Write a sequence for this structure.
């Protein structure tokens, strides 16, 4: 009788298999590479422009701002700029978006220097232009403008084309934002702000700009902010096309929906236009408040923590009210036209 083969008593050893991490796709690698190009080109443009213009503005900021000359400060400055550019790149913002957001979030710092530290308007315009162009120019070459900022885009690509391209509408919405920014700043200048600035800032040069404030001139000084707010909030929100979430919201049935589905619908069941408006207004408030506070507290000589926070709060309030005003226009039935 043939013998059976003896079964092996030892269990078969199982070799561990390494599971590779998901590799970046070609498009993801390309996107990361283009972001690096954006950061490097933006830094290069900023340094070159400031170096070439230093002769004309030399000494204007020397007595009122701290010198950034050690590596922790330099690293913090560069890191903050890289974060801004990361928002631009992965937030799908184009050159117009980021130029507008840069103007809206950086201008409060320069307004502080102009009003209370007697820094020349030419210096403010020079530095503000560098901040904007060093972001706008690289983005123009690396990413085309969105359809809402492209007047030649097909009508089918964007909602309310006739509205967002209408010069009268553009002018009126810009004036609305200008009026809000001007009113918030003017009301602060003629009430609590001068005493607050003197209390929380050491080395203020003059209060003349605050004491002589008149609303027409204050509003005139923030006209660029009105056009920037229109470009960053109103135009993209008004041009937003309905998406799949709008279809799901339209199909929502409170009688069959679960408790959490009902809460989700009530909190975030807005139209595409309203969602864009909320997202961009929130971004503007956060960037304006945070950048103004950081730049004021760490750069302006003699600025205290609460002084910088109070000044940034003025502009965050103006951004909030502007978003609310635009929200009334965007959600109005008069503007729910698709052309």
């Amino acid at each position: 009788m043939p013998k059976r083969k003896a079964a092996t008593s030892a269990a078969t050893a199982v070799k561990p298999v390494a599971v590779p991490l998901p590799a970046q796709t070609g498009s993801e690698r390309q996107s990361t590479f283009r972001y690096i190009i954006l950061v490097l080109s933006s830094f290069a443009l900023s340094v070159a422009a400031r170096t070439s213009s230093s002769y004309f503005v030399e000494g204007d900021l020397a007595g009122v701002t701290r010198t950034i000359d050690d590596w922790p400060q330099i690293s913090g400055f560069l890191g903050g700029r890289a974060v801004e550019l990361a928002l631009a790149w992965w937030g799908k913002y184009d050159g117009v978006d980021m130029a507008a957001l840069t103007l809206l979030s950086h201008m409060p710092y320069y307004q502080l220097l102009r009003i209370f530290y007697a820094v020349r308007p030419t210096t403010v315009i020079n530095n503000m232009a560098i901040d904007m162009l060093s972001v706008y120019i690289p983005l123009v070459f690396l990413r085309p403008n969105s359809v809402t900022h492209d007047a030649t885009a097909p009508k089918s690509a964007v909602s309310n084309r006739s509205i967002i391209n209408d010069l009268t509408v553009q002018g009126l919405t810009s004036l609305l934002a200008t009026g809000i920014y001007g009113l918030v700043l003017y009301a602060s200048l003629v009430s609590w702000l001068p005493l607050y600035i003197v209390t929380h800032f050491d080395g203020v040069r003059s209060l003349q700009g605050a004491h002589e404030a008149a609303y027409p001139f204050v509003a005139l000084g923030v006209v660029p902010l009105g056009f920037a707010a229109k470009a960053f909030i109103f135009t993209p929100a008004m041009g937003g096309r309905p998406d799949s979430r709008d279809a799901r919201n339209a199909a929502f049935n409170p009688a069959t929906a679960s408790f959490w589905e009902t809460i989700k619908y009530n909190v975030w069941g807005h139209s595409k236009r309203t969602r864009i408006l909320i997202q961009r207004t929130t971004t503007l408030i956060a960037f304006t408040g945070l950048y103004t506070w950081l730049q004021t507290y760490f750069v302006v000589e003699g600025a205290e923590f609460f002084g910088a926070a109070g000044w940034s709060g003025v502009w965050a309030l103006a951004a909030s009210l502007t978003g609310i005003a635009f929200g009334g226009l965007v959600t109005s039935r008069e503007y729910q036209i698709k052309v």
In short: The chain is about 70% helix and 0% strand. Residues 1-14 have pLDDT under 50 and may be disordered.
